[in-house]
Design goal:
receptor, 23% helix, TonB-dependent receptor, 1 helix
């Protein structure tokens, strides 16, 4: 399991983690806060990561966490 954290472009901070679900997929979970107050939690999955470096997986997870919060369906 790996831990990630950051700040979304709309000002929310997040703390999350992800783990490998199989050889080319990771699943993640993140908690979002604004000024220390809990605002929500999301989870997701990223496929087709076979052969991708650890740094690139971290970046993909961070991008997906941001996108899930700032561009909800």
């Amino acid at each position: 399991m790996a831990i990630v954290s950051g700040k979304t472009k709309n000002g929310f901070t997040y703390e999350g983690d992800y783990q490998c679900a199989n050889s080319d997929r990771v699943t993640w979970t993140a908690t979002y806060r604004l000024r220390g107050h809990f605002y929500g939690m999301r989870h997701g999955r990223i496929d087709q990561l076979k052969g991708v470096s650890v740094k690139d997986v971290d970046d993909a997870v961070r991008d997906d966490i941001e996108s899930t919060w700032t561009h909800p369906i």
